[in-house]
Design brief:
Layout: E1 3-16, E2 19-32, E3 36-40, H1 47-54, E4 63-72, E5 75-76, H2 82-88, E6 93-96, H3 100-103, H4 110-122, H5 126-139, H6 145-148, H7 158-170, E7 176-180, H8 188-205, E8 208-213, H9 216-219, E9 225-230, E10 233-239, H10 240-245, H11 250-257, H12 298-302, E11 308-311, E12 314-316, H13 321-335
Parallel strand pairs: 3-8, 3-9, 6-7, 7-8
Antiparallel strand pairs: 1-2, 1-4, 4-5, 9-10, 10-12, 11-12
Length: 336
């Protein structure tokens, strides 16, 4: 399968009065055509800033992409002019955000907001754009689509507003859809519906998806591959089934142990990750997760581990990943 997106050594900084925030620190990954990639991590791990940097949505100032390349369909997006990147955003690459109520304009109808992109990027006239808007609303499962074009965002429920955002994202038939925690503000039933819709649309349209979330439980049935981020760096990357079956990084292990599971005894306790995320203004040498890690050794506090290929499809940044695997295997054996 052909590579659609390749990120090489991307760094993003925010220059503030408190100091330089090292938000993204040299991340590299690729995305194939039609693939779904999940990017997972706590708040402040750099996952959202990382993808917003791809399409140059970082406010400048105070933000700045200080290093790296973003190759999409044969072009480095970091080198494009403002006009050129606008032709990519919303057209070739679309993005939907966490809270649709703040992303949608409250004083414009849903129809106006969908047709604007169609007229701007695809050159449709008003009648063509309105017809396409109805098709898009029907595609994402909004009943009575034609009658709802004249409604305003506040007249839709949270789940329906997110469906409208997805419809807007799909309006120009993008090659890549970036979803930044699109289910966080929704209840679990609606979350499941939105995830099922994303899977259905991916199969129907064939676009690639980057799905950003803090919850590993959300991506189990959605993603092909998972990237785990911490402290602005990638700490692990693997196929989704491999990551769940055999996590190599202590942070990934901690995320998985904090998820409720149906196959555990009813009196089993969730295991929290002790400590706090790192201060990105005052980044210390060594592994960013070391202060919270039960596997740390002295080397972890002084040397930053590189991202290492464990297999052709599994990468990890940890000095002790082999010891983590052994320890977890022993635990599994004891439970059996």
């Amino acid at each position: 399968m052909a590579t659609l997106l390749e990120v090489k050594g991307l760094e993003t900084r925010f220059f503030t009065h408190e100091g330089v925030v090292c938000a993204v620190n040299g991340i590299s990954y690729r995305l194939d055509e039609g693939e779904t990639l999940a990017i997972v991590g706590e708040s402040g791990s750099g996952k959202s800033v990382g993808v917003m940097s791809l399409i140059r949505l970082i406010p400048q100032p105070p933000g700045k992409i200080t290093a790296g390349e973003v190759w999409f369909d044969g072009r480095d997006l970091t080198k494009l002019s403002d006009d050129e990147i606008r032709q990519v955003r919303g057209n070739r690459i679309a993005m939907i955000f966490q809270d649709p109520m703040t992303s949608l304009n409250p004083v414009l109808t849903i129809g106006q907001q969908i047709t604007e992109a169609l007229e701007l990027h695809l050159g449709m006239d008003k009648e063509q754009a309105r017809k396409r808007a109805v098709e898009l609303l029907e595609l994402v499962g909004i009943p009575g689509a034609e009658g709802r074009l004249n409604d305003y965002p506040h007249q839709f429920s949270g789940g329906m507003r997110q469906r409208v955002m997805i419809a807007m994202g799909l309006s120009c038939n993008p090659q890549l859809l970036i979803a930044d925690e699109p289910t966080t503000a929704l209840d679990v039933t609606i979350q499941a519906q939105i995830i099922d819709l994303a899977k259905e649309l991916k199969d129907k349209i064939g676009m690639a998806i980057i799905w950003i979330t803090h919850d590993l439980g959300v991506v189990a049935g959605l993603a092909d591959r998972v990237i785990v981020m911490y402290g602005g760096r990638i700490v692990e990357e693997a196929k989704v089934n491999d990551l769940y079956a055999k996590p190599h990084h202590p942070y990934t292990l901690g995320l998985l142990e904090s998820i409720p599971r149906l196959d555990q005894a009813h009196n089993s306790k969730l295991v929290p990750i002790e400590g706090l995320p790192p201060d990105l203004v005052d980044m210390q040498p060594g592994c960013a997760f070391a202060p919270r890690c039960t596997y740390r050794i002295d080397r972890c506090l002084h040397e930053t581990p590189p991202v290492e290929n464990v297999t052709s499809t599994h990468r990890v940044a940890c000095w002790r990943w082999e010891d983590v695997i052994k320890a977890e295997s022993m635990k599994e054996g004891a439970r059996d």
